């Protein structure tokens, strides 16, 4: 049997075996009574409100992961994924259940309660600021699926993630060193890419002192595989004339590739790659804490420097002399009896991108007049966000013309105030939270793409959004087995200072957009009940409203005459509104705990970028409102501790998802079709076996069935340009040399499965790691 089809079958067999585990008379990892329904660790309380399916992961789970990026630590979580394309990728967008991998604005991500979600846009270009914290500084990863708590705004429509970093608990020093290698073979690209990460830091905490300080520094350097491949352009007249272009050899014919739009299955040849991605991350973090009695104060400052270079695009083409061919003045090439366009000013481009950002936050918690008050204020700013690209290969290597894109001032401010108190059977929580997101982006044509001299403005886009929300929630004790939680929130949203400037003939035109304001009311309901035989059930219902981002509203372009270009964005987008339901059932059978979950979500006016008809009946590619999308599904999650043998821990989960476009007047062909990039099946598993007191072996598994690539369900494939099936088998071994020294080695994607999310995922990758604590 093919290993891809064996993977989901093996996972289902494993889940069935766990479900059939005998009830043993021993302590289990199940929640006691009606307490929090949490999958994973039980030693630390979850840090976000656990309504619906909730996951809490700690050191036991982290030991089972080959983690290069912080987001790697949650890659085996149930019905969850992160779009990480290579080690050091800074465009890693998380997705929950039926959330598309470019719907970044539906995920609320926090570090120690400070928001790091980039709600300046809604795509892979706006990922959370994962680089603010390194993998070894993560103490706990908490994930909640869906918008079932009134504490959080509508951006929790997909789910919520909170990263808890390690606190200073004693005076110590620590260091970690990683090395990794990826042999890579795709089309005409043949190479092995290497990288490393080094981290060190210290903690200061005197016994009995309320003060604590933890400081860490990390550098990661890696060369990732090329993320895109060059395809020549198609013209019907050229295609039929083999003599129109310069004869070349070396092109790769990928007959399974994405057909050229508007043709009868014609597939363009692959003529080169976009260059390996050389990435460098530097991260510095300092956390100062004060704890005395019930009072807690904390200040966090983190800075992240990132540079990505794509300076070595590779052409597969050879001219008549056998020399590498990067294009010429003819702007056309002839391959196997057909001619294609190849513009030397737009192919084999070189690029450098810088993204430097910093997070600063302060948090206070303590008793005030019989209430517990928690407040935090934070800002994340992009100190530098600049990308430079050359106009083709020749300009790239000679310092010729190109473009520079700058963003600034760019970033966001967030604040939260929560007040809680218990009154008899009632646990009351109420408060306010707010955010301000602002961006200003310029695209400049330059005479020297590296030095960015001689700049002439091409476009400028700018805008702000502000949201203020108030909530109240009451957890009502209806007896020793039953807890009813009622909540509601009201949000006031405003978009303003939006506009764009672009070339208009010999000058420039600026178009400003009127400020918009809307509000939304979102009720919440949750009922949890524990009953005989260690069973726990929970029903959660909610509505949520996710308001448009700056990027969806304002970031686009003007036509050459200065008029509005409807192919870029939509300042009149409606907010998307969801209705959600989740039913959980959890039961412990001796050493095995099973959680079953069924969920439902219907989103009105879902915002998505696709090709469809606008209000004037004109086909455009832009962010639009889909009238309605719908998803429902089922999840089965199993945990086994010390079963079936002592020292063996198993986490396994399977999810079935039916996510469709329900109604879409802008593109009727998409109605009833499985939503793009959402697999029908998603299976994850992690097996950790403590072979001896000092040696642990790990097996990790991730599988996702092949989804649609486009909204109409016409593109399904397993090569460049598609979103493909995914199968990854990972191995790891951990050795505790001493109490203070540990080493590990592993491999990701052992079977070298070639998976795609339009871009290629990593092929087989090897890693070694050593860590010391003093």
TrEMBL record:
What PROSITE patterns has UniProt attached to this entry? TONB_DEPENDENT_REC_3
What is the topology of this protein in the membrane according to its UniProt annotation? Multi-pass membrane protein
**Organism name:** Hephaestia caeni
Predominant place of localization: membrane
Q: GO cellular component annotations, sorted alphabetically?
A: cell outer membrane
Keyword Transmembrane part of the UniProt annotation? yes
Q: Which Gene3D superfamilies match?
A: TonB-dependent receptor, beta-barrel domain, TonB-dependent receptor, plug domain
Residue limits of the TonB-dependent receptor plug domain? Answer: 58-160
The protein, known as:
Iron complex outermembrane receptor protein
| Pfam families (alphabetical) | Plug (PF07715), TonB_dep_Rec_b-barrel (PF00593)
Q: Which terms does the UniProt entry file under GO BP?
A: siderophore transmembrane transport
């Amino acid at each position: 049997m093919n290993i891809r089809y064996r993977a989901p079958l093996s996972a289902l067999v494993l889940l069935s075996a766990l479900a059939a585990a005998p009830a043993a008379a021993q302590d289990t990892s199940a929640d006691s009574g009606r307490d929090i329904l949490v999958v994973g660790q039980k030693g630390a309380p979850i840090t976000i409100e656990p309504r619906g399916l909730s996951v809490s992961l700690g050191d036991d789970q982290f030991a089972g992961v080959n983690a290069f990026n912080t987001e790697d630590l949650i890659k085996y979580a149930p019905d969850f994924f992160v779009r990480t394309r290579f080690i050091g990728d800074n465009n890693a967008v998380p997705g929950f259940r039926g959330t598309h991998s470019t719907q970044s604005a539906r995920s609320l991500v926090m570090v120690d309660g400070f928001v790091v979600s980039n709600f300046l846009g809604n795509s892979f270009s706006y990922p959370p600021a994962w680089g603010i914290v390194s993998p070894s500084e993560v103490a706990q990863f908490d994930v909640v699926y869906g918008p079932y708590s009134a504490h959080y705004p509508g951006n929790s429509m997909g789910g919520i993630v909170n990263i808890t970093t390690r606190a200073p608990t004693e005076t110590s020093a620590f260091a970690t060193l990683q090395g990794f290698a990826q042999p890579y073979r795709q089309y005409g690209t043949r190479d092995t890419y290497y990288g490393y990460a080094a981290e060190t830091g210290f903690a200061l905490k005197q016994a009995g002192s309320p003060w604590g300080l933890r400081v860490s520094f990390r550098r990661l350097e890696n060369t990732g595989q090329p993320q895109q491949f060059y395809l020549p352009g198609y013209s019907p007249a050229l295609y039929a004339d083999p003599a129109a272009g310069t004869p070349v050899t070396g092109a790769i014919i990928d007959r399974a590739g994405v057909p050229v739009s508007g043709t009868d299955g014609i597939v363009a040849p692959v003529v080169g790659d976009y260059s390996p991605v050389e990435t460098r991350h530097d991260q510095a973090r300092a956390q100062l804490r004060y704890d005395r009695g019930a009072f807690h104060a904390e200040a966090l400052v983190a800075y992240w420097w990132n540079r990505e270079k794509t300076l070595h695009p590779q052409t597969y083409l050879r001219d008549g002399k056998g020399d590498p061919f990067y294009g010429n003045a003819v702007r056309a090439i002839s391959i196997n009896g057909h001619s294609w366009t190849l513009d030397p000013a737009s192919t084999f481009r070189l690029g450098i991108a810088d993204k430097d950002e910093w997070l600063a936050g302060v948090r206070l918690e303590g008793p005030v007049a019989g209430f517990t008050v928690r407040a935090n204020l934070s800002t994340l700013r992009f100190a530098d966000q600049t990308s430079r690209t050359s106009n083709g290969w020749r300009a790239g290597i000679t310092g010729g013309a190109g473009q520079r894109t700058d963003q600034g001032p760019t970033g966001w401010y967030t604040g939260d105030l929560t007040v809680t108190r218990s009154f008899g059977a009632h646990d009351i929580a109420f408060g306010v939270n707010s955010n301000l997101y602002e961006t200003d982006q310029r695209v400049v044509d330059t005479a020297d793409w590296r030095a960015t001299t001689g700049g002439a403005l091409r476009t400028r886009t700018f805008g702000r959004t502000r949201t203020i929300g108030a909530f109240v929630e009451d957890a009502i004790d209806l007896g020793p087995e039953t807890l009813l939680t009622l909540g509601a929130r009201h949000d006031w949203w405003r978009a303003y200072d939006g506009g764009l400037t672009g070339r208009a003939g010999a000058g420039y035109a600026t178009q400003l957009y009127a400020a918009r304001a809307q509000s939304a009311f979102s009720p919440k309901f949750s009922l949890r009940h524990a009953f005989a035989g260690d069973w726990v059930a929970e029903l959660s219902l909610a509505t949520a409203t996710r308001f448009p981002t700056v990027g969806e509203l304002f970031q686009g372009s003007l036509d050459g005459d200065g008029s509005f270009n409807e192919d870029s964005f939509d300042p009149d987008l409606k907010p998307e509104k969801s209705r959600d339901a989740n039913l959980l059932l959890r039961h412990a059978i001796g050493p095995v705990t099973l959680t079953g979950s069924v969920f439902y979500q219907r989103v009105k006016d879902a915002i998505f970028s696709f090709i469809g008809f606008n209000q004037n009946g004109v086909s455009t590619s832009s962010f639009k409102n889909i009238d309605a999308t719908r998803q429902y599904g089922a999840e089965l999650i199993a945990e086994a501790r010390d079963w079936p043998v002592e020292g063996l821990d198993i986490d396994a989960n399977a999810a079935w998802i039916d996510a469709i476009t329900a109604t879409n007047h802008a593109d009727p062909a998409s109605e009833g079709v499985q939503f793009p990039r959402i697999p029908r099946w998603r299976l994850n598993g992690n097996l950790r076996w403590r072979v001896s007191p000092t040696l642990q072996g790990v097996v990790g598994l991730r599988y996702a069935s092949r989804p649609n690539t486009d909204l109409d369900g016409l593109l399904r494939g397993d090569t460049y340009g598609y979103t493909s099936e995914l199968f990854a088998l990972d191995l790891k071994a951990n050795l505790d040399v001493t109490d203070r020294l540990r080493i590990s080695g592993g491999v990701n994607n052992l079977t070298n499965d070639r998976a795609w999310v339009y871009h290629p995922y990593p092929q087989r990758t090897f890693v070694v790691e050593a860590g010391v604590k003093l």
